[in-house]
Design goal:
Blueprint lengths: L13 H27 L8 H25 L4 H29 L7 H19 L4 H27 L9 H20 L3 H7 L1 H21 L11 H4 E8 L4 E6 L9 H17 L6 E6 L2 E7 L3 E7 L4 H23 L11 H9 L1
Helix pairs in contact: 1-2, 1-8, 2-3, 3-4, 3-5, 4-5, 5-6, 6-8, 7-8, 11-12
Amino acid sequence: MIEQELYPLTGGFREPLLVVEWVMVFLFLELAFLLYMRIRNTETKFSNFIEQASIFFLLSYSIMWIFYIFGDYYMDTQLSRLVAYNIGYILRMILGLIFMYQIERYQVLFRKYLFSKLFLVFTGFSIVLFFTAIDVTQYASLILFWIPLFLMFIIYMIKLAKNVSKTQELTNLNTKIYFSILGVLILCVGFGATADPVVDLFGLGLRVLGDILQICGIIILAVFFTRLPSLSEKDWKDKIDRLFLMRASGICIYYKFFKDPTNKRDEQNISSAINTIKMILREISHNDGEMVIEKEGKVLITHQGKYITGVIIADQNLNSLNFLLKRLIKKVEFLYSNIIRDWDGEMEIFRPIENITQEIFF
């Protein structure tokens, strides 16, 4: 255990350490704010649950370090230092619980809400330790916070590497996974280098290095982890509801209902759906390429080809659905390029699109 006279921190390392650690706190808060602004400016909320959860992780980490700083630099007694530390631990556990819940709300990692329930129990246990065994909480936090968090991260990465749909266009997925794991390892090593037993053995110079490693680790995580695809990408068949292909004039040349496909759809129901799509397309007619909008509890994924506009109505915005829609439009336009240009209004000619849809979506 570190001798009490080391705290509050004094000497030549006090000022550089204080500067670096406040920079670290504000960096984490700034990253949380940037993620919040990114989410707020996104059309749909479903595809960015990783970003939502990451906000709470960054907040928990920055708040923890605020109390670390007050404990190490401004508290005169070991008890007051431990009290400051433990307030930081408890707030970190609460925000960590919200982080876990945000992840498991949209993605089952092992069993539904397993890690959230475990973290809830550990949060309660941390509060008990605060009043009964405050001197062991620094070591207990390794088990109560870091181990379950690391296990959840590893499970997520393993499932992501194994199960993401092969139909999705995944750019440099392995690189993103490896760098995300590297970021976590650097963050853990950096945090470990600031622990009391390590500082006691190697001195405050290692704490400076640990702070720098934590900054590097969190930046790597922010760059790569939030760009990883969701595990929900492999479950796109459960999310897609309807598909429409329409001419620029608004005429629907093909539609398909994915949910309850065996049920017959009456003409009034189909006509109503098509008219709704037409109105939405008129609203976004000035936009080229692809667009995702949320309307009446559903997500509309649109992509404009040269002759055809495709619309998917789904429960969640997924990159895999964007990719499959673009693939469908590209293939239909390739096969029907001459027909579409001089189309005389005969709908029977488009019946083979069903075979193309079956090939791509099933």
